[in-house]
Amino acid sequence: MTFELAATDGAARAGRLTTANGVVETPIFMPVGTHAAVKALAPDDLRAAGAQIVLANTYHLFLRPGHDVVRELGGLHRFMGWDRAILTDSGGFQVFSLSKLRKISDAGVEFRSPVDGSTHFLSPEIAVEVQQALGADIIHPLDECLAYPASQAAHAAADARSQALFGIVQGGADADLRSQATRATVELGFDGYAIGGMAVGEPKPAMYDLTELVASLLPTGQPRYLMGVGKPEDLVRSVARGVDMFDCVLPTRNARNGQAFTTDGPVTLKQARYVRDGAPLDAACDCYACRGFSRAYLRHLFMAGELLAYRLLTLHNVTFFLRLAREMRAAIVAGAFGPFQARFFSRYPASASPDEPGATTRLAASD
Questions:
Q1: pLDDT, tens only, 168-194
Q2: What is the pLDDT of residues 45-76, one digit of tens each?
Q3: Residue % of the chain over a pLDDT of 70
Q4: Structure pTM?
Q5: CA-to-CA distance for 238 and 25, rounded, in angstroms?
Q6: Catalytic positions, please?
């Protein structure tokens, strides 16, 4: 994997990430394919939306169908019919969210599967082995439990398989601990760096401040990934602080709950005011849902429980997030990211999502 910066504007960066399965232009949003599928969308839908890379969840694929099955069937790209880049997380966030179903030791974590109650063990070494079997382009160590020797072994194995290994910076909400964790992670040396432990209930100002702090301590010439974030306004504010890559379940989860993201903020179709609304979801969007259907029709589909509603709303939301990433990149290249931010926030009402204040946007074990 290689990464090069094409332009900067303040702390905002436009880059080019080259993987074994394609080029990813940053800033980029990665749709979440929990079980090797982005909910309600086929690979053709993702390509139409402009996706260059997707995220698959190590924890869920470890439990079902099993990484050995995926490896025997040719790896994750062939298994899910996706010919572009794939990033897998370590599975750590999901495992450690099982507070009543897991037992942590120095060697790793033992946990009971919420699928069938079976007992499993995940160590730093096993987490990397699972991701190597899956064959993702970018993989991560088990961040909460990772020890220095495990990271060294992971490096050697990943290099042999053309996989990039990103280190994960933790440290909670304490600025000193974040700084220490960042310096220690950088000292180990990784192909890129993920900022973990955000969007888990902390106040937004704290998330932005910590993101800016960590980004300022990371190497300039390597990609920076803010895990599990976030809402559209979070992407814009985090790019302004030097972040390159994002993932979040909101575009797909909110679509399944009847909400669409638009240039003027979220549209919640369950509301009665859309019963006779003949306008598209977003006049600025060229996705299939906006080209062909009205808000009234989409509301009808959702209220009637028609499966088509989930596909169309998900397609729109994923397209919206990917278009936002492209627009940010274009603004950075043009040296106009400041004016872009001003235009964006003049129309988009921050924190208009129905999620409760402080609620997590991360992919939990139950998602």
A1: 999 888 999 999 999 999 999 999 999
A2: 999 999 999 999 999 999 999 999 999 999 99
A3: 90
A4: 0.92
A5: 16
A6: 89, 247
Q: According to the model, what pLDDT value does residue 161 have?
A: 59
Sequence-distant (≥ 6) Cβ neighbours of residue 12 within 8 angstroms = 27, 239, 240, 242, 328, 332, 337
CA separation for the pair 104, 109 (Å, rounded): 4
Long-range contacts of 350-358, Cβ-Cβ distance < 8 Å, separation of 24 or more = 350/231, 350/233, 351/204, 351/231, 351/233, 352/265, 352/266, 353/231, 353/250, 353/254, 353/259, 353/266, 354/254, 354/257, 354/259, 354/266, 354/268, 355/250, 358/201, 358/202, 358/203
Q: How far apart are CA 317 and CA 253, in angstroms?
A: 10
Determine the pLDDT at residue 201: 83
Instruction: Residue 210: name the closest of 176, 175, 163 by CA.
Output: 175
User: What does the block give as tokens for 122?
Assistant: 């995940």
Distance between CA atoms of residues 81 and 41, nearest Å: 12
CB atoms within 10 A of CB 76: 24
User: Cα dihedral angle (24, 29, 32, 36), rounded to 10 degrees?
Assistant: -10
Q: What are the DSSP E strand ranges found in the chain? A: 2-9, 12-19, 22-26, 28-33, 53-56, 85-88, 102-105, 108-112, 119-122, 138-139, 164-169, 192-195, 224-226, 245-248, 259-260, 267-268
Q: Which is nearest to 57 in space by CA: 83, 26, 100, 95? A: 95
Q: Find the helix or strand (DSSP H, E) in which 257 lies.
A: none
CA distance 269 to 334: 36
User: What is the Cα–Cα distance from 107 to 147, expressed in whole angstroms?
Assistant: 9
Cα(297)–Cα(279) distance, integer angstroms: 10
